[in-house]
Amino acid sequence: MWWSSLFEGMSPANFFNFSFLPKYASFFIQGVEYTLLLSVVSVALAVIPALALALMRLSKSRFIHGLSGAYIAVFRSTPLMVQLYIIYYGIFGAIKIPSAVILGFIDISRFIPGVVALALNSSAYVAEIFRAGILAVDIGQTEASRSLGLSAWQSMRLVVLPQAIKNILPALANELVTMVKESSICSVLGMSELIWGAKTVASTTYKTLAPYVLAAVIYFAINFPAGKAIEAVERRMRRGDKV
Amino acid sequence: MKKTIALILALVLCLGLAACGSSAAPAAESKKIVMATSADYPPFEFIVLNDKNEQEYVGIDIAVAKAIAEDMGVELQVSNMDFDSLMAALQKGDADIVLAAIEITEERLEAADFSDPYYTDYPPMVLVKAANAADYTSLLDFSGKSVGAQTGTTKADLVSTSFEGANLVALTSVLDLVNQLSYDKVDAIVLDGAVALQYAQASDDLVVAEVDLGEAYPYCVAVQKGDPKGLLDGINATIAKLLEQDAISAFYEEADALSDQAIE
Question: For residue A113, which residues of chain B lie inside 8 Å, CB to CB?
Fold first, then answer.
């Protein structure tokens, strides 16, 4: 086989010893699908709770403000891995999810706890992003819309939020990129995402570095274009601005 | 100008200090042998708290390694890590020998050299929850169930080849596997015979299923490919001596007794 002849004589610890590829490619392909599904679903699920949390944080009521603050503080001050363990064994130890397989290899009894943990964690960070974006919109906008007779909720929904989106987008793109990388933590619970695939290939073939190098290249290939795409959307939104 | 001169002089002094540091190292090197293992595997290697309340590595593999180090006249240093990092540590040179209930397989032979066998275990066994034990009497009963095994071990290969229709859940640590079984996240886990017996003994919830998984393979000591330090002759001599004296069964009994206190 011409492919394996490329790597003949390479030490197993070589960075570029990709001789495992044709045979073990499925681990990486499935890993990419799992990682993408995990991170996109988590961030998508996190957006509505995050918006709610941000608005709660901005409220005048001290109780609501404090409640939201407590949630955000807890999820930002504890490691994601600990949160994952507690949610997986604790909460989903009590709630049993039947073991069904979607898309041929994704076991939902593991996928759902992973998504829930990632979404809960992500919503804390995204809430802060939303809050910063909302606060960055000039207070004059709220004043003007209120004086025109719009209610608080209407002015938030129709005037402030659309303008806040421009401020929020770069940070949100950052969060998505971070979530793609953080989803690798789920490998400790047996979810077969990309890092789990790389680890399994490395321990089966004893090519100790190259699978991780391949995983890094794949992560880069996912995150870099995503970041660039959001940059393009953001540039389009800024077209009308003076500066 | 003055500042630049002062900066350059400072850097030159640092270089001088660095040179001092490196020359002291080579003298202290050769008096010990580093053994890499994954100490979550009673009775082969595990951690207990000794009388001084310090963590100590004990187990059959540790005892064998100590005998090897003694015969070579060097000190033994144990380096604990995940099972799937063991071969990498060997290749990198972080470890001189690896004893972790390792069987010889073709792929492992490409990455390292092995000594003569020092112990043959019970065949691999399947651990299930006591409540479900009656359901599992043959390999076919695992079809559609999730079965856990450790990444990079022959047990994981066993699940993929012999357990028809089962979903393999591969995890790095044996403790995670046992945890997942206890919390019903997997239906069964496959472990080496002696280890499965230990966990079944230690916990009322877990029992060994009545399934036959064939023969067991012997364990060997792994050294770096090409054996650059020439350790294999010494290791094989020690192993021959231990097998003659039947010392390994004594190690097993000792380990059995201690494993109630295993903290990992």
Answer: none
